[in-house]
Design a protein that fits this description.
heterodimer; A: alpha/beta; three-stranded antiparallel beta sheet; 30 helices; globular; B: alpha+beta; Uridine Diphospho-n-acetylenolpyruvylglucosamine Reductase, domain 3; GMP Synthetase, Chain A, domain 3; seven-stranded antiparallel beta sheet; five-stranded antiparallel beta sheet; 20% strand; EC 2.5.1.26 (chain B)
Chain lengths: 741, 572
């Protein structure tokens, strides 16, 4: 046997080289094919060298560890479970600040720079209008048009016209001019708003690779309007193909801005179009055409809307199943799904969100609203971290999962309801991607501070806070949380800088940290409750960022307390009950309750909080601190759900809509708060109220019925009472905090 | 005939690719148009495509080592009874090994470097239908296993003996049943013994001015019975039809007795056509002994042609249009760019400066004047047959369609060379094997709308799998559309790679081929268009024809051959 020929396993060393065109001549080893992957590091001329100087060898090893996108995580063998979290501490890429260079050189020159992004192989560029007419003429859309014409008796031309209107409303019209305009203004704005915008460069390089290989779908988390602006800005900065972004139609309500966004690559989808077959067909085909041709990366938010609570929302499946279909039908070889985690040290819309959660309606998107909001420009919003995750190959995910070929027996252009298999797969993928987002969310020290603070309201000793924060940092890291805590920053400084940044939420008074809930000095009792709730919800927004990291061990801890038994079976059954009840609140991969339980136990064992044996789970002596901290962390949810269930069991009408439910439960809780019968301010959050209702619907305690104008709900008293009993009898009664004062 | 053929490779002993003294590739022998010609650019193509090197060479054993061959263990009573029938037989090792395999890569590899675990114990040569009846009767009586053997060109592991078969295995070689029994000019049919080899059949029919027009790529070696048993397809099916269209009547000897019809008619409505139990039965039910087949007068005129397309997509679109208008010539094939380059590399040394100048001019016209990218363009080869006048008319029609899809006529010569290559290409594997390159072809059929996606995805899958499995050089992964139908096309893939540095190349090869087949199925392609299932593709049968479908086939097998006399274990 001849000796193997030396060959580097991955083309990564190329990454660090400058532009190189493929060399067509010479022996055709693998390289020419990969040589086509022209890799440049456009932006980072100087900054990169600086970075390399600073961190030296470390950076290089990171690059080597990053691997090519094909080596995606979960490159599971056939049949292996699709999601399994790596419990050993994960090595993550390092960050680079992209604003640093913007502060050093001209924004105008930057906006006018030569922009020649790398593109998908074999792509012939196509104008937005050509795209639209391709969609209109596609078999898929034409088929639906003809069907509708047949059914309604309307003429084909009129429906065609309608389709054209939909396309015009929907379609983006990306123009370099608009992009440059944004590049310029966003540079100015971002520099005003943020201290740093940090990006993992290895992630960008992986993305660059991925874009050339297969169609790419970008799946960022959604916390703020800044998200998609920032992401496009980032791709422009790195000379990558700009994404087309699925945006809510409400943006079109904004004069000029809507059109500007359209030119920067946004396309607009109506919020609900379930019943409109023409709209669905046109929309789906529009997205798929862009994907199939590799026209541009497609970006949308799995969460569907901005999370008002900074907690990841349960995924929506519609768009995801659209972008996955070309692969199912083998119209593309593969599709890359790229989870992107965008974490804000301080969320731009924080107070807006809190108002909204308390039922003060969200202002409609309008240009004047945007202009009014410009006063926030004078404020400081800290650092943004953007972590571009490993591209996940859809083909790898599907291998062994989708065996039968449901699309083989029907022409591919006919609209077809996905089989149950496929629906389940889409849902699994959605959860997997959200869990990957969560894994790489950056947690700032302030997140820890607020988690501690919320357990010690209304005020706590500064020194104790520092001590507790530091303790929580260790625990969070044990649980796999991704904390960005500068190496040699002492805890005190970290807490102080958090307090400074979030002075609107809490401040330091006489050596004690106090929540800013005063507002008007002597308002009515209602006003006091409202102010307090506002401050707590804002604070909770930050604590919430920890919850998905903590939820598994915490639910085990709560289950331990609730069952007052050490038998594993009982603890697990309680855990499983809680997991179901909170399935809308936190992100759990569907159907792996036992694995989640094991993960929770493992993490608790890792921090010496519990011991487990074959049959038993019991807390250790020193573990009680951790166990009670964890259960306290989730207590607001336990209590709020209890209140909401009580409302449903006692006060709610027989059938009601969500619109009736929210104010009803809000008044109910508000009155309890006013009377001092509860301290659970978070129960006022409409997000939690909706989640609780959805969870009950999920477990069958509430019947959800589709009506012409939305859903109506009817309570199954018996079932709700049963759930409530679980909570009532088992939740250890907590004395009102006030009593301690 | 066995003496004319290679024992460890494809085709005739005297025909093969070699590196001559000047280090250029040359094709030996006089049987093919390429014979004796020097192919100056071919060596470079090989080196470039596979990263092969002339220094790294493997050599096959020069001849069979008789000591390695599993001994022949024959049921004594069966042997006695067989002797009594006077049917000739042999227990010679070489005879038995020769019939122990088809032409799958792994089989050839075993011949070159190892030995089969199980081979036939005895070879019998019946000379007529009655002989076969006697042999089958004896086999039933003594419970021995029969594996029918025709031309031995199977590429589905159909001829391999099941390792676990404990009974005596009889290889029933039909090669001595090779007569044309009669020709019926009024009905244009001929009754032929099933062992006749394709080219002999055509030669003999031609003496009376007829042909069958059935020309699979293996027609030099494959037999009529084999075609029936595998549902074969011929290159010129557009005029003459595939085997199922050509066959009028089949006589088959089974353990239950002889199956045949009462008349020789163009069509009958008498329940499901029993011919369709036989065609594609892959030797699991019995031995096809006599076939009545349609014949046609030898065509007056033949003309080759070729068309260059700017890219594969346009080419496929053109073929689709040709199929739609139902004006496909006798054969129309579209090769992708990689195969075009391969064909190009096989151009023999040009005789004069003038031709070389002309070639240059042509190239200039196509690439510079018409703007075709030589790394993207693809070529269709055409074969017209029939009346001279009609051929010319037909030709014009097809070229007119081609023009609409950006096609440029590229001359008769290119077309003819394309068809000649299909016969010669099979010899190439043996050259590759000498230099650490292994390869194989496989085929499928697919609806028109999925042709492009399937071709792209399967080629890509092959490349990826190779990379994943540690293959050091990018493989050759190429395809061509070889047949057009109303509702779809037949696609043929070639796949080869340099296996230096891999310890178990055959295993790696099989994994990749399997992945490619999975990809085909996922893309809406069929398990096989004409190669058959054999043992190689059995695992996908259930998925292909459903549980019930498989049960239907099983119940036929159970009725016809309850003791599994025809125990080659193919198909089911």
């Amino acid at each position: 046997m001849a000796p193997p020929i030396a060959r580097s396993p991955h083309p990564l060393p190329l990454l660090l080289q400058r532009t190189r065109r493929p060399d067509q001549s010479g022996a055709r080893a693998w390289t020419p094919r990969e040589g086509a992957v022209v890799v440049r590091l456009p932006r980072r001329g100087r900054a990169n060298e600086r970075g390399a100087g600073r961190r030296g060898g470390a950076r290089r090893t990171m690059a080597a560890a990053a691997g090519a996108p094909t080596a995606a995580p979960g490159r599971a063998r056939r049949g292996a479970p699709m999601y399994s979290k790596e419990l050993t501490s994960k090595k993550r890429d390092e960050f680079e600040d992209i604003l640093e260079e913007r502060r050093l050189s001209s924004d105008l020159r930057y906006a006018m720079k030569c922009y020649t992004p790398v593109i998908y192989k074999g792509l012939s560029p196509c104008k937005p209008n050509a795209l639209k007419s391709a969609v209109l003429q596609s078999e898929q859309v034409q088929y639906v048009i003809k069907q509708l014409a047949k059914e309604t008796g309307e003429s084909v031309d009129i429906i065609q016209e309608e389709a054209m209107e939909i396309l015009d409303e929907m379609g983006h019209s990306m123009q370099l001019g608009a992009v440059r305009f944004f590049a310029f203004t966003l540079s100015k704005i971002f520099k005003q708003l943020f201290q740093r915008v940090c990006v993992n460069e290895e992630g960008m390089q992986r993305l660059q690779h991925a874009i050339q290989e297969h169609p790419v779908v970008l799946l960022p988390s959604h916390r703020s309007y800044i998200d998609f602006l920032m992401l496009s800005y980032l791709l422009y900065t790195y000379d990558l193909a700009l994404p087309v972004i699925a945006a809510g139609i409400d943006f079109l309500g904004m004069k000029i801005v809507g059109e500007l966004l359209r030119r920067a690559g946004a396309f607009f989808m109506r919020r609900s179009f379930g019943g409109n077959r023409l709209y669905w067909a046109v929309f789906a085909e529009y997205v798929k055409t862009m994907l199939r041709s590799g026209y541009a990366p497609i970006e949308f938010f799995l969460e569907g809307t901005r999370s008002r609570t900074a907690k990841t929302l349960t995924p929506k499946f519609g768009l995801l199943s659209i972008v996955m279909e070309p692969f199912f039908k083998r119209e593309v070889f593969d599709t890359y799904l790229v989870p992107i985690s965008i974490s804000y040290e301080r969320i731009l819309e924080e107070s807006l969100y809190a108002y909204e959660l308390l039922g003060v309606p969200k202002p409609k998107e309008s240009t004047s609203g945007l202009l009014k909001a410009r006063r926030i420009l004078s404020d400081n919003f800290g650092t943004i971290h953007i972590y571009v995750g490993q591209p996940v190959s859809l083909r790898t995910l599907a291998s062994g999962r989708i065996n039968r070929c449901p699309y083989n027996l029907v022409p591919r252009h006919l609209p077809q309801k996905p089989s149950e298999d496929i629906q389940e797969f889409v849902s699994d993928v959605a959860y997997k991607m959200e869990l990957l987002q969560i894994e790489n969310m950056v947690l700032s020290p302030w997140v820890l501070v607020s988690a501690v603070l919320l357990q010690n309201l209304p005020a706590m000793d500064f020194e104790v806070l520092i001590e507790k924060t530091l303790w929580l940092k260790g625990l969070t890291q044990t649980f796999g949380g991704f904390i960005e805590w500068p190496d040699n920053l002492c805890a005190k400084k970290a807490v102080v800088s958090g307090l400074t940044l979030h002075s609107n939420i809490a401040c330091l008074v006489d050596g004690r940290v106090v929540l800013n809930d005063k507002g008007l000095e002597d308002g009515a009792i209602g006003e006091v409750v409202f102010r307090r709730a506002l401050a707590i919800l804002m604070c909770a927004t930050y604590r919430n960022q920890l919850l998905n990291v903590f939820v598994r061990p915490s639910l085990v801890a709560i289950a331990l307390q609730m069952t007052r038994s050490f038998r594993k079976e009982e603890v697990y059954s309680c855990f499983s009950f809680l997991r179901d009840i909170f399935s809308e609140e936190f992100i759990f991969f569907p159907g792996i309750s036992l694995k989640d339980f094991e993960e929770g136990c493992f993490l608790l064992t890792k921090c010496d909080a519990i011991h487990t044996s074959q049959q038993e789970v019991y807390p250790t002596d020193k573990g009680s601190i951790i166990v009670s901290f964890l259960s306290a962390m989730f207590r607001p949810f336990m209590e709020a759900y209890q209140l909401i269930f009580r409302y449903l069991s006692k006060e709610a009408k027989e059938t009601f809509t969500e619109k009736q439910f929210i104010p009803g439960v809000r008044n109910f809780v508000f009155q309890l708060l006013e009377k001092g019968n509860t301290q659970c301010y978070e129960a006022l959050s409409s997000d939690m109220q909706k989640n609780a209702l959805a969870a009950l619907a999920q477990v069958g305690a509430v019947k959800k019925k589709k009506m012409s104008n939305g859903f109506t709900y009817s309570v199954n008293q018996e079932a709700v009472n049963k759930v409530l009993d679980m909570f009532d009898t088992k939740i250890p009664v907590q004395k009102p905090v006030a009593a301690r004062l | 005939r066995q003496e004319l053929l290679k024992w460890n490779g494809w085709g005739y002993n005297d025909s093969k690719f070699i590196f001559n003294k000047k280090g250029q590739v040359e094709f030996t022998g006089k049987r093919y148009r390429l014979g004796g010609m020097v192919l100056p650019t071919f060596k470079e193509w090989i080196l470039k495509t596979f990263g092969a090197s002339l220094e790294h060479k493997t050599t096959s054993r020069a001849s069979l080592n008789v000591n390695d061959v599993p001994p022949s263990i024959v049921n004594e009573q069966f042997l006695q009874d067989l002797r009594a029938t006077k049917i000739s037989y042999s227990q010679d090792a070489e005879d038995r090994v020769f019939r122990a395999h088809g032409h799958c890569l792994h089989e050839i590899f075993v011949l070159r470097e190892g030995m089969f675990k199980r081979i036939p114990d005895i070879v019998v040569w019946p000379v007529c239908h009655e002989d076969v009846v006697k042999i089958v009767e004896l086999a039933c009586k003594h419970n021995v296993c029969i594996i029918p053997f025709g031309g031995g060109t199977s590429v589905s592991s159909a001829l391999e003996c099941p390792e676990e078969e404990k009974r005596t295995i009889v290889s029933l070689d039909t090669s001595q049943m090779n007569r044309i029994l009669w020709i019926d000019e009024k009905n244009l049919t001929a009754c032929v013994e099933a062992g006749i080899v394709g080219q002999d059949l055509e030669k003999q029919l031609a003496e009376s001015g007829f042909c069958t027009g059935h020309e699979p790529d293996s027609m030099e070696f494959s037999s009529l019975g084999g075609w029936v048993a595998t549902r074969a397809s011929g290159m010129k099916k557009n005029i003459y039809g595939n085997i199922e269209d050509l066959v009028i009547h089949i006589k088959m000897v089974t353990p239950r007795g002889i199956v045949e019809k009462n008349c020789q008619v163009p069509r009958m409505s008498t329940g499901p056509d029993i011919h369709h139990f036989i065609m594609g039965s892959e030797g699991t039910l019995g031995v096809v002994t006599e076939v009545t087949i349609k014949i046609r007068p030898v065509p007056e005129y033949q003309k080759y042609g070729s068309v260059v397309f700017p890219n594969f997509e346009r080419g496929v679109a053109c073929l689709r249009e040709v199929a739609k208008q139902r004006c496909a010539p006798a054969s129309i094939r579209l090769v992708d760019n990689a195969q075009f380059q391969f064909g190009h590399a096989l151009k023999p040394q040009v005789a004069s400066i003038f031709t070389s100048f002309l070639d240059g001019l042509k190239k200039f016209y196509i690439t510079k004047f018409k703007g075709f990218d030589p790394n993207i363009l693809c070529v269709a080869t055409l074969l017209f047959e029939g009346d001279r006048e009609k051929v010319l008319q037909h030709e014009k029609q097809v070229y007119d369609i081609a023009t609409k899809f950006g096609g440029l006529a590229a001359g008769e010569d290119n077309g003819q060379r394309g068809y000649m290559l299909t016969f010669v290409i099979a010899y190439l594997r043996d050259l590759g094997l000498d230099y650490y390159v292994i390869g194989e072809s496989f085929e499928t059929s697919v609806p028109w709308d999925r042709v492009l996606d399937l071709c792209r995805n399967v080629k890509e899958r092959i490349v990826r799998e190779c990379k994943e499995k540690g293959v050091q050089f990018a493989p050759l992964s190429t395809c061509r559309v070889t047949q057009t139908y109303d509702a779809g096309a037949c696609v043929y893939f070639y796949f080869a790679f340099n296996y230096r540095g891999i310890s178990d190349p055959i295993h790696v090869y099989e994994q990749i081929e399997r992945a490619a087949r999975e990809e085909i199925l996922a893309n809406g392609g069929s398990l096989s268009h004409h190669h058959g299932v054999g043992k190689l593709r059995k695992r996908w049968m259930k998925e292909s024809i459903s549980d019930v479908g498989l049960g239907m086939l099983r119940s036929v097998k159970e009725y016809v051959d309850p003791n599994n006399i025809f125990g080659n274990k193919n198909l089911l």
